[in-house]
Amino acid sequence: HHPEETLVLVKPDGVRRRLTGEIIARIERKGYEIVDLRMFTPSRDLLVKHYEEHEGKPFFEPLVEFMGSGPVVALRVGGSRVVEGFRSLAGATEPTTAAPGTIRGDFGRDWGEGVQKNLVHGSDSTLSAERELKLWFG
Ligand code: DAT
Ligand code: MG
């Protein structure tokens, strides 16, 4: 089995903008394996648990609402040091200033609604990955 796995989400903006294939292609081109994949509109309950570290912050409610606004594609992705590696493929949180060559840098910008529409989520540590994979894949 893989030494490491991470949770990737193609967020509702990524799905709506038909970028799911492009994002999966970049993950595979890097040599990571798509181990499992689901597409559905996440419940508020799941999203509140997923983003529990941000509860109470001013962007929490808009974030949960946006993430539940349509289908997302959840991916279990495996590979050596994939947690850090996918964060690097995704780029910085703010799409406007994310580096070119990254998913957020190449396809994202500020659409007048702050940084929430940044196309993808990737777990930020192996501990988060374990917790988040349990939430999204059981
Ligand atoms: P990341 O997705 O890069 O791990 P994060 O965990 O700090 O970033 O935040 C989770 C999501 O919340 C992020 O993808 C977009 C949104 N977000 C973060 N900071 C924000 C802010 N200051 N204003 C609005 N939305 C924000
Ligand atoms: Mg995060």
From TrEMBL:
Location of the active site: 121
EC number: 2.7.4.6
Coiled coil region boundaries: none
Enzyme class of the recorded protein, top EC level: transferase
Residues engaged in binding ATP: 11, 59, 87, 93, 104, 118
Pfam family, one: NDK
Cross-referenced PROSITE patterns: NDPK_LIKE
NCBIfam families: PRK00668.1
Family listed: Belongs to the NDK family.
Name the record gives this protein: Nucleoside diphosphate kinase
Organism: Micrococcus flavus
